Amino acid sequence: MATLRQLEYLAAVVDTGSFTRAAEQLHVTQPALSHQVRALEASLGGPLLERLPRAVRLTPLGRAVLPHARAVLADAGRLHAAARRASGLAEAELEVATVHSVALGILPPVLRAWRARHPGVRIRLREYPHAELLRAATAAGRADLAVGPLPDDWDGPVRELGVEEFALVLPPDDPLAGAPGGTLPLAALADRDWVHYAPGHGLAEVLDAACARAGFTPRAAVRTEQTSAAPALAAAGLGPTLAPATILPPTLDAAVLRPDPPIRRTLTAYTRTRPDRLTTAFTDLLAARVRLGG
């Protein structure tokens, strides 16, 4: 049966790309590391790594095994952390994964309140550009808690936090800045060049889908990978953009309008397994502090 040590050795070889560098990182001899990897391969019924002259490469079996190995290692790390928290032997650490827009617009006041209440608990924040990457990382055991859009087909506990509203951002002197009631149909911007998000960014899909429902495909004047840059670029006159209302700074010199019909997404907090007391406490604070629609 595979051991934690063997799984750790496998992950180190993959991460470093070399048996030699992995052995140095783990402070073991290369023969000892190689022996443990071979033993792991024997227990799993086939080679996990292809030994090349100057590198190593995962075999198909290795590619299938590696995500599970990482999840087991992450769970083992959290098991020890939970034991230390329960015994009071060490300060705790909570790993929170999220998407960029939530890290920017929602989490800062929550983290400030958490720090005031629990100064001995460190937060390790992992940020992802797309909700699917967040889901995959959480499924692989890379975080104690995920905060982001409602995941599809999630088997673990999910807690809804509320509904996130999106806003249209235009320069303050735009002819449509004074739209009646502060609302504007997206179709009114069909002939514009947009401030868009980079391919692979989750908000790019939100913008494309919203424009498709309005009957057009947005032309990109510029694409940005930085969530916070889109409203600033729109305010500077490069084109309209669509962004979560929570990320818009109060000092933004721009016209901020509500799309008609509204564009919303449900935000959640979710875990792979039943959360421990520390994770539950953070989720409770998050739910109490986040100001979202119902």
From TrEMBL:
Key words, A-Z: DNA-binding, Transcription, Transcription regulation
UniProt KW Transcription regulation keyword: yes
GO cellular component: protein-DNA complex
Pfam family, one: HTH_1
InterPro entries: LysR_HTH_N (IPR000847), LysR_subst-bd (IPR005119), WH-like_DNA-bd_sf (IPR036388), WH_DNA-bd_sf (IPR036390)
Gene3D superfamilies per UniProt: Periplasmic binding protein-like II, Winged helix-like DNA-binding domain superfamily/Winged helix DNA-binding domain
Domain (HTH lysR-type): residue spans on this chain: 1-59
GO molecular function list: DNA binding; DNA-binding transcription factor activity
Superkingdom: Bacteria
Family, similarity comment: Belongs to the LysR transcriptional regulatory family.
Name of the protein this chain belongs to: DNA-binding transcriptional LysR family regulator
Record organism: Kitasatospora cineracea
